[in-house]
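User: Assemble these into one structure.

Assistant: Restating your components, then the assembled model:
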Amino acid sequence: MTIFLLSLRSNLQQKISLLLLVGFPLLLLFIPSTGGSLPMGMSLYGLLNLYSAFLMTRPVMEDRMRKTVVRIAASPVSHAVYLCSHLGAAMVLLALQVTLFVVACAFRFGLGLTNYMLLWLLYLAYSVMVLSLSLAWNTMFRSYTTSFALFSGVGSIMCLVSGLSFPLHLLPLRVQRLVRILPTYWLAHALAALYEQNGAGILLAAVVLLVFAGIFLLLGSKRRF
Amino acid sequence: MAGSRIQTGYEVVERVVLLALLLIALYLLFPVLDSLMLVLFLLLVFSLLLRWRFRLNPAWMVLDASLLVLISLFFPDASLLLGLYMWYFAVEEKPLFSLVFLVISFSLLNPKMFPFPLLCLVLGLVLARWKAERKNLLAEADALRLHLHRLEEEQVRLLMDYQDAQQLSQLEERSHIAQILHDSLGHELTGAHLSAKMVRSLLEKGAVERAKESQDKVIDRLERSLGQLKMAVRDLESDPEVERSRLDALLKEFAYPVEKHVRGDLLLVPASVRQLLYACLTEALTNVAKHAKPSFVLLQIDSSQTMVRMMLENDGLVAEVEQTGGNGLRYMRRRVEAVGGSLSAQKDATFRLIIVIPLSGGQ
């Protein structure tokens, strides 16, 4: 079995995986809109996607904890192939989740609400970013439990202040300026730009998300034992 | 080990300095931090991380920096980020590039911001100096390791030469014994042999009296031969008294009193092994004198037909003594192992050095 398939299987074997990938995204569709923006569920999906991505990086972390990565280092499999297989498997699942959510949104809110293709592309860029962020975050810890405990706190606060789980325009202006350095802010920014049909804003947000993804990938892809 | 410590220390400081400079840049840019400025900042971080992660030619960074200069022509605040490129070029030992970009940033930047590029440049130059020194230090450490490796190789060659010399000496000794036997015994034994033959022929002829005379001559010759054999053996053997007095003198002259216990007959031990034990004892006593302050030193030698064991024990352990064996101990071990023996050191309440050498007679 290839590392890709093994990673896919171990991701799906986690009990909460199906709920996160299928159940919770559908529940988000029923969160009412606050008005003047896209439905709140679309922003909250950013939070859900963040935790889903974190869950998807668990096999990499467990390989490190169980020293499987040492055995892999001694095998003919290169670190790049190993990492690409894991990230590829995680990305396939996240892409499925994104597709399901966007299709469900189109059914729930109607095709006229927004440009769903752009929304799908934005969510994909965001998924790449959060996957890289989770990978980089995990490299700082030796235990997945500790890593998750801290990430759940930091992630929630990050999503809260960057406008994913709380409307951005309700935050003070100074905070709104400050949170621009947070990667999660740029999904909220992109969703606002999508609602206003601001093409430059969407493009900018997508570029920033991808640059953040590149930074986190460079940080997280270094081999650690 | 020392090399890796030096490397780690430098790398940590380099990362901390870079992180601090990035935070300072972000803080200084914050009043004008719009989307474009943030993208530029993130691209700069990406560019620096790319070079941290992969070894790229520093000259390629000129492209990134030039692009930033172009953007700075329209957005002068962005030229603040040139400071980080200056830092990079200084660390990568390309100070000329740093100076060029310093001039450019001074021409574009708000004078209030001048200290930042200067700070970047100074920190970069300091780190570059440290890096160069570290490189020299690592080169010196490598040279020392190479020298040590060559010395060890030389030691192995010397040991092999020593073994060859021992074999040669044994062959010479055999030849010497053969010569002594030939010179002193050959004549008498030949005479005895001829006389014994004569006794038989005289007895066949019935000349009993003459046969008796010949028999007496045979006996005389054989007795003389035995005497000469004993003398020859005495000449060949090393003098046990001389060896004993040499050992006693060594122990007596030692800085601390040494208690000696010898069990078994040391004369059964080959002279070459006795010489090796003596050399090891000299080295071990030197080590005790150098590294310990003992109240007692015990020397115990047990010899049997199959092996000889020497133990030197002392209670003068000094805490700061290095645990790994020095060159003397290493060389001693190699010499002992070369003759099939073993050397071990035990450290409990006392320090014991134990040498066990099997004797070929017992195999």
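The mean pLDDT of chain A is 87.
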